[in-house]
Amino acid sequence: MNMLETIVVFAGIPLAIYGLVSVVTLRSRNGGVTRYRPGQPWEHAPLWWTANPAGVGEQRQSAGASAVTGSVKGGARGNW
After folding, report:
1. Where are the alpha helices (DSSP H) in 1-72?
2. CA distance readout (Å), 71 to 30, 63, 75
3. How many C-beta atoms lie closer than 10 Å to residue 8's C-beta?
4. How far apart are the first and last CA of the chain?
5. Is the pLDDT of residue 1 over 90?
6. C-alpha angle 37/39/43, rounded to 5°?
7. How far is 58 from 42, CA to CA, in rounded Å?
């Protein structure tokens, strides 16, 4: 291999890959879609989200009593 081929293989191809990745990731995705900014009024209907949609509406245990020991333990201090 001559010097030009070596440069193309070891420098040109990686630079082309980096350039392609940068063009794909840095392009404008929304193209003029307005975004919510803090302080602006919220103009959409409220949306409630739950991690367990199958459990919505079921009777839940109160937060003050545990099913096993009768009291809640744990928390931010890690007292289990």
Report:
1. 3-7, 13-26
2. 50, 9, 12
3. 13
4. 67
5. no
6. 75
7. 31
Q: What does the CA dihedral 55, 60, 61, 63 come to, rounded to 10 degrees?
A: 90
- 53 in Cβ contact with 47 (< 8 Å): no
Q: What is the pTM for the complete model shown?
A: 0.38
Give, in order, the Cα–Cα distances in Å from 29 to each of 21, 26, 34, 50. 14, 9, 12, 28
pLDDT per residue over 26-80, tens digit each? Answer: 877 766 777 788 888 888 888 777 777 777 765 555 555 545 555 666 566 655 5
Which DSSP helix (H) or strand (E) runs through 56? none
